[in-house]
Specification:
It comes from Micromonospora mirobrigensis. The chain is mostly beta strands and 134 residues long. Helix content is 4%, strand content 53%. The protein has one helix at 69-73, and strands at 10-13, 16-17, 24-35, 46-60, 80-86, 95-109, 117-132.
Length: 134
């Protein structure tokens, strides 16, 4: 088994590469589960339903770059954008996930004793396309 270091992750939102401003990112996939139990059963039966997902990312605030998180993400709040996540970085044969997502939340946090940070939450819309980079 080969381990993969998170430092190589690449994230683009609406074609803007925000990777340099990210310290963390997370994809969470889920599915509806429907109970289908009928009379006479000794245990519940279930069936899968619609897929769903969330994507979050965050890092250290940067006010100097036009493509920094505030300028790249805050204006997109409430809109549906294209997101590409490359968990192993860019390169031939490496995986990537592409999806449309609503920018649901953008947060800036200003602690008195540390750097300003930011985070964003995305609600995935429709299916995720997982592919291998050419």
């Amino acid at each position: 088994m080969a381990y993969v270091h998170g430092k190589d992750t690449v994230i683009t939102v609406a074609t803007k590469d925000i990777s340099a401003y990210c310290k963390t990112s997370s994809y969470e996939g889920s599915a509806d589960v429907h109970e289908t139990t009928g009379y006479g059963k000794a245990a519940k039966t279930k069936a899968g339903g619609l897929l769903d997902g969330k994507f979050t990312c965050g890092g250290t605030y940067d006010n100097t770059a036009l493509t920094g998180p505030r300028n790249a993400l805050k204006p997109l709040l409430g809109t549906t954008v294209a997101v590409v996540r490359k968990p192993e970085g860019t390169g031939t044969g490496k995986p990537q996930d592409s999806f449309q997502a609503v920018v649901a939340k953008y947060v800036e946090t200003s602690p008195v004793d540390d750097m300003v940070t930011w985070s964003a939450e995305f609600e995935i819309s429709d299916v995720i396309t997982t592919s291998t980079q050419p």
